[in-house]
Every structure is written in C-alpha cells, then in structure tokens.
Design brief:
Length: 175
C-alpha cells in the first residue's frame, strides 16, 4: 500500500535499493530503484533486449526513480525516463507540473528540457490554458512555482499535452 505521496513500506521478503549514478546504494538520496525478490521473474518473455536492460545481476530495474527516506520505506518519485538532465541538476518534473497545473487559468502543464544550438539545455514549461487566457496572465505565478535553479524557464502555450494511452506525458513530442 502506498500513500498519496508515493510512499510505502517495503515487504520483508523484498529487497529494494536506491542506487546513484555509480550503482552505489544510497539512503535519503533520490536515485534509480532496483528490486530483488524470491518471487520475481528473471526476464521478459520473448524480449531479450528489454530483459538485458531491466534484469541485471539478480536485480530488476523497473525504470522508476525514488528515495528511501529511511530503511524499509520507499517513495516513488516517478519514471527515470522522465528525469530531466539540466547541467548541474537532475529534475523530476511531475511534482512541479502538478503545482503549476493548480495555478488559476492553467488546465494542464508539462515541463521539458530543450537542447539549445550550443548543446546546452533549457527548461520549457508548456501550458494548456483555460479559454481566452494567455501566458502573460500566468507567467508570474508559474515563475513563483518553479525552483530558483530553473526560474529562467521559457513558458509557452500549447493546445494539448501529448500523452500515451496510459496518460504519461510524451516529452519527446514537446521538443
């Protein structure tokens, strides 16, 4: 069972680790989730490529990003493929998107990282606004909702946020 914030208790017969970029287990720091259990499968059926990517050294890497605030507790923060890599920081956009979407006149929000001509990255906040609203109507509130490190983000209005059938934002289509 997980709380609304994505936090839950780890079952006693399941091993969960959060690992950093060097595959070192960490506690209290966000990173990639990996899982071991005597009940888990060891590969995907008829998909050796995906199996090689997700099953390594007895661990299953589900593609989730999270933190263990303390041993025995896990908080899932989102998907690793949604993680935005902006020079100097790694940003998981889901919580920020939820905050921005709560701003008056914002119907939906998506945050992505765009590659600039010099090879650097720039954060872009894509908004679906309520009818007859413009980015200028919400720019101050959006800037206030963003952490200072990305306060220079571009804010643009879009007609829709592209999503998969499961409702996951298709960030690559926002580029």
């Amino acid at each position: 069972d997980m709380a609304p914030d994505g936090t839950g208790d780890i079952l006693s017969d399941v091993s969960v680790e959060i690992i950093d970029e060097d595959d070192n287990p960490v506690i209290g720091v966000a990173g990639t989730i990996r899982i071991q259990s005597p009940y888990m499968v060891t590969q995907y059926l008829n998909d050796p490529s995906a199996s090689q990517e997700r099953f390594r050294d007895g661990w299953f890497y589900p593609g989730d990003y999270g933190v263990m605030p303390e041993p025995g507790k896990l908080q899932v923060l989102g998907r690793t493929d949604d993680l935005l890599n902006i020079p100097g920081i790694k940003l998981h956009p889901a919580n920020l998107e939820a905050q921005v979407a709560e701003i008056d006149d914002v119907a939906e929000a998506a945050i992505t990282s765009l590659t600039q001509t010099d090879g650097g990255s720039h954060v872009c906040v894509c908004l679906v606004l309520e009818p007859d609203r413009k980015p200028a109507d919400v720019i101050e509130a959006v800037s206030a909702a963003l952490p200072p490190i990305i306060s220079e983000a571009s804010v643009i209005q879009v007609t829709l946020i592209p999503k998969t059938k499961n409702g996951k934002i298709q960030r690559r289509k926002l580029d």
